[in-house]
Specification:
single chain, mainly beta, Immunoglobulin-like, Glucose Permease (Domain IIA), 2 domains, ten-stranded antiparallel beta sheet, nine-stranded mixed beta sheet, 22 strands, disordered C terminus, binds zinc ion
Length: 311
Amino acid sequence: MCAVRAAFRPRLAAGPLLVALVTAPASVSLVAPVAGENPARSVDAGETLRGTQGDVLLVTIPVRDKPDRVTGKFLQRTLTLFPFRNGTYAGLLGLDLDDPAGRHDLIVTAVYPRRTDRHRLSVTVGKADYSVQRLTLPSAMVDLDAPTLMRVRAEAGALRRAFGSVLPNPLWRDAFRAPVAGTRSGRFGSRRVINGQSKKPHSGEDIAAPEGTPVSVMNDGIVRLTMDHFFTGNGVVVDHGLGLFSMYFHLSRVDVTQGQTVTGGQVLGAVGATGRATGPHLHWGVRLNGARVDPYALLPLPFGEASASAN
Ligand SMILES: [Zn+2]
């Protein structure tokens, strides 16, 4: 699946690595300022961004002066934009695997000391063609008894709390990378039928690899959580800032500790089959401001030195 879809080519920069860059054009129509202490100015970008459920879109907005903060609102989710290049602010917009198909507004607000600019962008979400995956597992792993159910709920709460951290800046600089080489064995978004029962869609990618294969972190960040959960087994959650988290599950061992700073490519642990797993594989998941996105959607994003030459 193509990870990044752009409705139009960038106008602010050229270069093959920036083809995926989605920009609001500089020639925007301005609506008269509203009177008041901090007048709001509406800037209708008049363009449509396109993506498919599970995609990650890089949204850039031209800014003048120096805003105090730039945030975006999309389907009840908030994203924080950060200073990017060529006088723009950028943000990663995640399209959840269950976001309704169709056209939705992305409202980007740039707050300055004396005014507020609002950019309205239109985002068209396409329906992804998810497959159905049928699995057979021991019934104790599917029909949970009461104590296990309590455990699973507490573990889900711990994960939710970990996702609550939203650092105001990106912790990464370079391009994102896959944590392990292997065969993609359980595709993102697939509708799961386990022992004949419909379950939640698969919110990550399963990569089959031999037990003990090193697993490396997709980019710079801080280890937010290390755990041994019923479903996920030994796992690591890494916070990359701005509400972007990556997850590495079913590990045979964990080599990092909570709060530790990690650098892209650093080994976090090794492939295993802990938790609910049918064999050794890595479950790689990404959460972006609450949206469950395809982790592979991050790989083509134009970060790092290779794309800096396109500045
Ligand atoms: Zn998985």
